[in-house]
Structures are given as structure tokens and as C-alpha cells.
């Protein structure tokens, strides 16, 4: 059986950024690639719209005050291209896949860098 520390090692060495958020849009887990892509030292305990600034999905969730991927129960996943403003002001284009987890209280977001 693979141990949790071994899974964490793989999780943190992926090129894709991975973020887990709650229905209230708070980041409860992320990997190192998510921080690199988004320009944050950590995303933990931040609100998703704060780290995905400028993305249409973040604006939509902000208006509804909750993660709309979870409330729509999108376990099939939603793929979309987003443009995010990093804390240094740089714009970065990402491919995002958001998946509502079966427990209906969490969402996984996978981020992949793209070319302009």
C-alpha cells in the first residue's frame, strides 16, 4: 500500500497545480505547483476568488458567495481556459478543470499552464 507521505511527494512534484476548496470557497489543500503557477507562497485558508483573480468562475462564485461547481454538483468536471492576475500583476493563462467531489462539500481544481 502507498503511504500518505509518498502520495504527498507525488502531489507536490506534479507540474499541474491542484487546489481543494470547500463550499464556502476556502482553500483547504494545495500543492506546490498551484503556488508556483498562481504566484502565492501558500494558498491555504485563502478564498478561491482571491487566488484566481480575474477568472470568470471566481467572479461567479464571488457573486453567489459559494462555490458554484459544488452547488451545481458538477462531478463530471468543467474544463475552461482562464486568465488569472498574479499578486505581482502578471497575467497568466491557465487551463482549469474543476470537479465537485461526491461528498458535495468539496471541489478539486486542477490548473495547467498554457501558451498564449
Work out the count of structural domains: 1
Estimate the mean pLDDT confidence: 85
The total count of strands amounts to: 5
Number of helices: 5
Helix content: 25-40%
CATH superfamily: PAS domain
Summarize the main sheet: 5 strands, antiparallel
**Global structural class:** alpha+beta
Radius of gyration: 14 Å
Topology:
Elements: H1 4-12, E1 17-22, E2 27-30, H2 32-38, H3 48-51, H4 56-64, H5 68-71, E3 78-85, E4 91-100, E5 106-113
Antiparallel strand pairs: 1-2, 1-5, 3-4, 4-5
Structure notes:
The chain has helices at residues 4-12, 32-38, 48-51, 56-64, 68-71; strands at 17-22, 27-30, 78-85, 91-100, 106-113. By secondary structure, the protein is an alpha+beta fold. It has one domain (16-103): PAS domain (Beta-Lactamase, 2-Layer Sandwich), CATH 3.30.450. The radius of gyration is 14 Å and the shape is globular.
Key terms for this structure?
116 residues; alpha+beta; Beta-Lactamase; five-stranded antiparallel β-sheet; 5 strands; 31% strand
In short:
The protein is an alpha+beta fold and 116 residues long. Helices cover 28% and strands 31% of the residues.
Amino acid at each position: 500500500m502507498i503511504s500518505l507521505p509518498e502520495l504527498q511527494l507525488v502531489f507536490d512534484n506534479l507540474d499541474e497545480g491542484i487546489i481543494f476548496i470547500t463550499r464556502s470557497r476556502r482553500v483547504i489543500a494545495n500543492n506546490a505547483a498551484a503556488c508556483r503557477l498562481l504566484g502565492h507562497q501558500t494558498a491555504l485558508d485563502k478564498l478561491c476568488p482571491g487566488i484566481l483573480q480575474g477568472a470568470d468562475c471566481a467572479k461567479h462564485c464571488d457573486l453567489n458567495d459559494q462555490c458554484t461547481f459544488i452547488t451545481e454538483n458538477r462531478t463530471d468536471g468543467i474544463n475552461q481556459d482562464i486568465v488569472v492576475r498574479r499578486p505581482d500583476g502578471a497575467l497568466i493563462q491557465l487551463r482549469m478543470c474543476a470537479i465537485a467531489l461526491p461528498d458535495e462539500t468539496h471541489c478539486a481544481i486542477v490548473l495547467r499552464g498554457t501558451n498564449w
